[in-house]
Recover the amino acids of this structure.
């Protein structure tokens, strides 16, 4: 494609995108078709890629294919390997796509579809994709170094250590909140619990198959595993209807929480090949397959959005979580628009696989745009439900009332009509006892996906199967995040402890392995139990805490990027990273301060502590407030440290010592990659 | 065009299933596939792969 054709097509995309955005933003009188959201997001993303990101690649980064990348210079047959750009793209996307972009938009749908959709589109193009793109660029120019290493070398020792501690704390909150999503989805659901429980022996069977029966046949065993999981979904229906087995798999939230904690510990300490790796293969393929299936389903069914563009809850009184649209919509969407965690992937495996510098653009920027599109699909899946049904599923009993009658009365009183009969019928059609109070986003997302899938094929008769298929999909990769995350947290803790007493840092010393695994599991387990016992559903306190932590990590990443741009003598372009960083500072600091100090007990942790007589609730809220405050202190430390660097360099009082590796001419021919 | 897309999809699947990494491992060590070699690959590869942070 020549430049003129590219510009003409890009211009056309911009016009169509603007028209579609105006359509969804200005229409208030009738339901909007979901295709408007699809067209608006795709066109804006393509326009951003064609004009904004390409301009940054050419003018700011001056990407140069003549320059050898670390994959070529340090090629070792393991980590460093020049790889085809589409393979790196697939690898990178699979690594960044987690539960966040699915759950976040589903929860933010309580404000209506418009605020979340606009943030997913704009935040992704101007913030999230920029962060991933620039971090990947910085890492490629620094031998594939991690964010922590770059923070230490470019900003200072304080920055490096602060980044490490922040990541560990965020990981603990992340694991607790995603575990809570699974617990709430499986609470008193024998069908769902059986299906998810069955994935564990299936994964162990896959591990043994790969290790002893047919070593190396990953695709073969993944297909067998997938067929077994499909079988377990059908078997789950039988279990749910069996008077003998249904009670065995009907487990309370607290019982499920302890089961997930025990699983996390076992998965962290067991050999990786036995449980974690086969589960990871299965989870990756199912995740990518379902995302593709959902995209096809939306394009074929073209469902109408039932949720209004803006709901009454933009004022902060929402039942799903408390807090007004600014800043809580941004905090809640998190990974769908910008995720600090992506900076760890962009400075992890991916930079070691980049064969040519020009590949940084599609891999870094393009993958995040695709992730944003996943967020848009989640928003659509949540908003195709009747609003009354959405709120009945996502509202905790502490807000809407402890009986079905009280709940439907409260929700109908808000202007979102729903009846107890409708909810009972819906629960029956998906094989559940009840769909009330299923907070956390997963069940409503699963129901929305099931509606889309069943309209695409099978009709109402298959609604139950599709619902449990979607629950299985969400729980499968959330549990993979939990077991892999616990293991990574264990390594990070051992790294830290090893600096105090050397044997504690040895990953093969069993007392250290067991002790550090237990410490990580108990840390996130504590917050999980706290969330399960929270009368407001847990998500109300934990998801914002996770969102704040995640966005603060993005601030650290953008801070490192800005420092690198200053040191590259590109100060006139620092607005590229500085603007999204300032935007995130405004949003995240406002949200964090509100979460600590708001006088409303549903928002402010300290107010909630003051409002309660239960010593456990008082302590938990004080702990959450302290953690939130600690995040702010850590990030402020990095910001101040960086600010001193920038001002010093710009004034000329400090040398711009960049750690960029010197130019080495590439010997790699185009056909080799 | 479609053929190229299909080849890329297959290549991505092979990467995600670690088949490419195993092929690189065999080439790097100059040995052929065997159950023992695959177990050695698992020990080396998984040791690195599961030390990295997972995304949310």
């Amino acid at each position: 494609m020549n430049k003129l054709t590219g510009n003409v097509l890009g211009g056309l995309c911009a016009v169509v995108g603007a028209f579609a955005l105006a359509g969804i933003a200005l229409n208030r009188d009738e339901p909007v078709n979901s295709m408007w959201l699809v067209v608006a997001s795709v066109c804006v993303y393509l326009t951003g890629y064609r004009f904004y990101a390409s301009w940054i690649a050419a003018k700011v980064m001056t990407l140069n294919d003549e320059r050898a990348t670390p994959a070529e210079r340090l090629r070792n047959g393991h980590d460093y390997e020049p790889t085809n750009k589409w393979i790196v793209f697939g690898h990178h996307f699979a690594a960044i796509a987690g539960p966040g972009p699915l759950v976040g938009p589903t929860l933010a749908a309580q404000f209506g579809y418009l605020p979340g959709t606009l943030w997913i589109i704009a935040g992704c193009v101007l913030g999230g994709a920029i962060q991933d793109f620039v971090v990947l660029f910085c890492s490629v120019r620094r031998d594939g170094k991690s964010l922590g290493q770059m923070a230490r070398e470019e900003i200072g020792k304080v920055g490096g250590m602060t980044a490490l501690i922040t990541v560990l704390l965020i990981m603990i909150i992340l694991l607790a909140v995603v575990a809570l999503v699974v617990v709430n989805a499986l609470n008193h659901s024998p069908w769902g619990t059986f299906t998810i429980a069955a994935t564990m022996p299936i994964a162990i069977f896959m591990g043994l198959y790969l290790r002893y029966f047919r070593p190396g046949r990953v695709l073969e065993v993944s297909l067998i595993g997938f067929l077994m999981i499909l079988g377990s979904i059908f078997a789950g229906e039988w279990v749910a209807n069996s008077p003998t087995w249904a009670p065995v798999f009907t487990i309370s939230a607290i019982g499920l929480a302890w089961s997930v904690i025990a699983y996390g510990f076992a998965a962290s300490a067991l050999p990786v090949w036995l449980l974690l790796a086969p589960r990871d293969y299965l989870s990756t393929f199912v995740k990518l397959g379902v995302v593709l299936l959902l995209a096809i389903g939306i394009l074929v069914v073209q469902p109408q959005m039932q949720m209004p563009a803006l709901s009454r809850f933009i004022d902060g009184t929402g039942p799903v979580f408390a807090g007004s649209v600014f800043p809580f919509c941004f905090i809640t969407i998190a990974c769908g628009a910008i995720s600090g965690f992506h900076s760890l992937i962009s400075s992890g495996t991916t930079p070691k696989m980049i064969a040519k510098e020009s590949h940084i653009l599609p891999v870094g920027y393009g993958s995040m745009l695709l992730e944003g599109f996943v967020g848009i699909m989640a928003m659509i899946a949540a908003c195709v439900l009747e609003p009354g049904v959405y709120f009945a599923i996502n509202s905790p009993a502490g807000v809407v009332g402890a009986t079905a009658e009280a709940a439907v009365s409260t929700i109908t009183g808000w202007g979102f009509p729903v009846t107890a009969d409708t909810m009972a019928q819906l629960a029956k059609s998906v094989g559940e006892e009840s769909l009330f109070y299923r907070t956390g986003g997963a069940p409503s997302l699963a129901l929305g996906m099931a509606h889309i899938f069943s309209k695409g094929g099978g009709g109402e008769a298959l609604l139950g199967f599709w619902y449990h298929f979607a629950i299985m999909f969400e729980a499968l990769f959330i549990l993979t995040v939990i077991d892999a995350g616990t293991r990574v947290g264990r390594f990070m803790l051992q790294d830290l402890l090893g600096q105090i007493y050397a044997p504690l840092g040895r990953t093969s010393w069993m007392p250290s392995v067991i002790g550090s695994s237990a410490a990580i599991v108990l840390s996130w387990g504590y917050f999980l139990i706290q969330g399960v016992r929270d009368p407001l559903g847990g998500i109300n306190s934990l998801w914002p805490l996770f969102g704040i932590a995640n966005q603060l990590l993005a601030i650290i990443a953008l801070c490192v990027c800005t420092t690198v741009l200053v040191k590259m003598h590109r100060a006139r372009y620092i607005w590229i990273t500085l603007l999204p960083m300032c935007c995130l500072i405004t949003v995240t600091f406002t949200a964090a301060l509100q979460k600590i100090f708001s006088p409303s007990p549903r928002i402010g942790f300290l107010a909630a502590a003051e409002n309660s007589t239960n010593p456990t609730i008082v302590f938990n809220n004080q702990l959450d407030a302290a953690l939130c405050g600690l995040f702010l202190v850590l990030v402020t430390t990095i910001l101040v440290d960086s600010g001193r660097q920038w001002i010093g360099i710009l004034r000329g009082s400090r040398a711009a010592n960049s750690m960029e590796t010197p130019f080495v001419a590439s010997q790699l021919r185009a056909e080799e990659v | 065009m479609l053929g190229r897309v299909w080849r890329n999809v297959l290549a991505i699947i092979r990467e995600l299933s670690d088949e490419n990494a195993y092929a690189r491992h065999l080439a790097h060590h100059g040995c052929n596939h065997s159950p023992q070699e695959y177990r050695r690959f698992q020990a080396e590869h998984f040791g690195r792969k599961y030390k990295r942070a997972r995304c949310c």
The interface with chain A takes residues 8, 11-22, 24-25, 27-28, 33-35, 38-39, 42, 44-56 of chain B (CB under 8 Å).
